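Course assignment 3, question 2. Fill in each field.
Student: A.L.
Task: Predict the tertiary structure for the chain below.
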Amino acid sequence: MIEEQTWTKLVKLAQRGHKKCTDLLAREAEGRLCAYIYRVTLDHDLTQDLSQEVLLQMVKSLGSLKEAERFWPWLYRIAQSKIQQHYKTKQKKAVISELAFYRDFLSRRSDYHQNDGLRQLLQKELSKKVMVSMKQIKQQYRAVLSLRCFEQLSYSDVAIAMQCSEVRARVLFFRAKQALKKELTHQGLGKGLLLMCLGLFGRLTAPAEAAGSTVTVTAASTKVGLTATLIGTAGTKLGVATVTAAAVGLISVGGVSVLSKPSLPERVEVKSLHYTTQLRNTDPDAASSLSKGAYEQW
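Answer field:
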């Protein structure tokens, strides 16, 4: 595999019009690109079609890339746009059963790699459960998991590829993790196995030149930060409890949860249309305050 610094040099040469460098860039990028598209679509035939479209678009638009160092986020952005366009314009195929899907994956990947060790790995029941779980989550979730865990992009680069803000990228990643945990649980796998299952999926779907390598997903790479966690959990029971606790000043003293005295805003300060009736301001000096307690303001 080419090192990242070499990628940057190759991209710059291709941008200057060196045809051999452009051809080499396309050939070297194809394996990694195909692996990404397959991880998102889980469709071999579609992967082949879309990868060629993306590579053609890459060659045509390479001159528009302002920062050669951002080649991969830029390329994944093109790939993601092609994937979304496909699902918007093409009719959805008939739903394939989980068993048929895994059999197709099993036959194609074992023939593709011709690796006895990987053949044995593919036959294991755990691999089936992981692949089926990944198939059940949204395409958008598979995309953000792949970009962060397997392509090892920063959240700022993930945002470029997904055409969204960095906060949105973090929230998507958090929700993708939660969705995958849920599906793994349905398959009888504990939530604590998330990192291992992600690593296994990465190895099962790795490009041919990386088939024998180990894919390790670290806990650090799956952190999203407090803000994204709060936003990501909004709407869930945990999220409602967390936001409510923050709104009414829930604090812990010596291991005991207590409510601090709320500071209610003036009427003119209220911008939100969402109200709750959890608290009532009974202070006689607060005549101009809200008549009924806490409110949500996002």
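Instructor remarks: The mean pLDDT is 77. Residues 4-225 form one domain.
Grade: pending
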